[in-house]
Design a protein that fits this description.
Elements (H helix, E strand, L loop, with lengths): L1 E3 L1 E4 L5 H10 L4 E5 L5 H6 L1 H18 L15 H25 L3 E4 L1 E6 L2 E6 L2 E7 L2 E3 L3 E3 L12 E2 L1 H5 L7 E5 L3 H12 L3 E6 L10 H13 L3 E4 L1 E8 L4 E7 L2 E7 L1 E4 L3 E3 L13 E2 L2 E2 L12 E3 L10 H15 L15 E3 L4 E6 L2 H6 L4 E7 L4 H6 L5 E7 L5 E8 L2 H13 L4 H5 L10 H10 L7
Parallel strand pairs: 1-7, 2-3, 2-8, 3-4, 8-21, 10-17, 11-12, 11-17, 12-13
Antiparallel strand pairs: 5-6, 6-7, 9-18, 14-15, 15-16, 19-20, 22-23, 23-26, 24-25, 25-26
Helix pairs in contact: 1-8, 3-4, 3-6
Bound molecules: nicotinamide-adenine-dinucleotide.
The site of nicotinamide-adenine-dinucleotide (NAD) has 27 residues, from helix 6, strand 12, strand 14 and strand 22.
């Protein structure tokens, strides 16, 4: 039996960061991972998709090179090389995580962990079984794609993100089921590569968690690029052919049969709570997610859960941050504050990009705030015009009473980088006053963030 101060189960961005932090705090730490270090994010999610989307962006730029006075003819791309580059990027970072864990003296066990109760854990692998024990165990087992009955991914005609990320050839047509971040990023990627894409979303707006105004602009931009979008619609039946599927789509408008070569199922995720021995503990699971308090503590003393398996938002940066807070709390560090879910940014790396933090206008109103809303379009921003990307909007939502920035929502060039400015603002609890008196470099896209603040108070200068 190997005894540790802390054991982390799962080596994704929640687990490996928690393990490094624990080791930094002087704890003897183990991490158990059954597949890849870096988890879904690094191997099959955030990182490899960003590599694919970068290729799509390059293709788009070349396709529109004329706009910049550059003539390019004979544009061609090699799908195998695009996919190989994406896999290479994931591979490099996976090795990097292994190196970081080693440098921080975390003992890594390759295998499947199962809780045995009483702070004990069994790790099984091809090599056999090992027993570990600790008074503090952090579960960071992540989540996997949810599948719908009758439309289960089969790896051939119906894809999850995994097959969608490693296509051997390009389908002519594609139906993307679900218009959350995964669905929209793949719709954007395949559209740039010339595939005929249809998106089917059950709710009445794409990117349903985003501000309605921003989602409407995204919807318009994707349609202009040739993506067909059906909202308030569901795939209710699937008929498989040899190399294509017919999706029966029901909506308020009626029933439609859509034949496509491939279908991507991107209808959300479920937590990985099975076969990890939760039945040997008092931890509770609701709708596939482990229930935790604000410090990630489950109902079983000494057992914690962080990241996707502990519930929404299922985002890598939320998982890492939760992991750090959880481990620091275990270490007895004073003055910690629990994770503020209202300060977790969300980014969708489609073209155009979408990014946000905090409350949407509708949510703020729903919560009883009297709001002041500011808007600034990129078409009035010098840098955006110079870049040739003047489409998009920055929107701010302030509390009229206190001036607190309740939320910020953006669509357009590089907004996934810019959002961090508003995240810092929210973290520091700044009001409109500090934001108005912050000097933004000229010419930058971020000047739109300044103007969107000024606009909320009737002081915008460039519109
Ligand atoms: P999601 O929950 O964000 O979106 C799923 C979408 O599918 C929802 O809009 C939902 O209304 C829709 N849907 C559900 N059932 C449907 C049906 N029967 N027919 C049509 N539509 C249906 O989940 P996701 O996009 O699969 O992503 C999973 C998780 O990964 C999310 O938490 C997401 O935030 C995260 N993620 C984040 C990023 C990023 O930050 N860039 C990228 C990928 C994934």
């Amino acid at each position: 039996m190997n005894t540790y101060d802390l054991i982390v189960v799962g080596g994704g961005p929640g687990g490996y960061v928690a393990a490094i932090r624990a080791s930094q705090l002087g704890m003897k730490t183990a991490l158990v991972e059954r597949e890849h270090l870096g988890g879904i994010c690094l191997n099959w999610g955030c990182i490899p998709t960003k590599a694919l989307l970068r290729s799509a962006e390059v293709i788009d730029q070349i396709r529109h090179a004329d706009r910049y006075g550059v003539s390019v003819s004979g544009l061609e791309f090699d799908l195998k090389k695009i996919v190989a580059r994406s896999r290479g990027v994931a591979g490099t970072l996976n090795k990097g995580v292994g190196h970081l864990l080693k440098k921080n003296k975390v003992d890594v066990y390759s295998g499947h962990a199962q809780l045995k109760g009483g702070g004990q854990l069994e790790v099984s692998s091809d090599k056999g079984k090992e027993e570990l024990a600790s008074n503090s165990i952090v579960l960071a087992t992540g989540a996997r794609a949810r599948s719908l009955p009758g439309i289960e991914p089969d790896g051939k005609l119906v894809w999850t993100y995994k097959e969608a990320m490693t296509p051997e050839s390009l389908p002519k047509s594609l139906l993307v089921m679900g218009a959350g971040a995964i669905g929209i990023e793949f719709a954007s990627f395949y559209n740039s590569l010339g595939v005929e894409v249809t998106v089917v979303e059950a709710l009445d707006q794409i990117l349903p968690i985003e501000d309605a105004e921003i989602a409407a602009l995204a919807d318009k931009a994707f349609r202009q690029k040739g993506i067909r979008i059906l909202t308030g619609a569901r795939v209710t039946e699937l008929r498989k052919g040899a190399d294509s599927v017919v999706a029966v789509v029901d909506s308020a408008g009626g029933r439609e049969e859509i034949e496509v070569e491939r279908l991507i199922s991107a209808v959300g995720v479920v937590g990985n709570t099975e076969n990890i021995g939760l039945e040997n503990t008092r931890a509770e699971v609701e709708r596939s997610f482990i229930q935790v308090d604000e410090w990630s503590q489950t109902a079983e003393p000494g057992l914690y859960a962080i990241g996707d398996v502990a519930g929404a938002p299922c985002l890598a940066h939320k998982a890492s941050h939760e992991g750090i807070i959880c481990v620091e709390k275990i270490a007895g560090i004073e003055g910690l504050t629990p994770l503020d879910k209202g300060a977790v940014p969300g980014c969708t790396y489609s073209s155009p990009q979408v990014a946000s933090v905090g409350l949407t206008e509708a949510k703020a109103l729903e919560q009883g705030y009297k709001v002041r809303v500011g808007r600034f379009p990129f078409k009035a921003n010098g840098k955006a015009i110079a870049l040739g990307e003047p489409e998009g909007l920055v929107k701010t939502v302030f509390d009229d009473k206190t001036g607190e920035l309740l939320g910020a929502h953006m669509i357009g060039p590089e907004v996934t980088e810019m959002i961090q400015g508003y995240v810092v603002a929210r973290q520091l609890e700044t009001t409109e006053h500090e934001l108005m008196h912050t000097i933004f470099a000229h010419p930058t896209l971020s000047e739109s963030m300044h103007e969107a603040t000024l606009d909320a108070y009737g002081k915008a200068l460039h519109i």
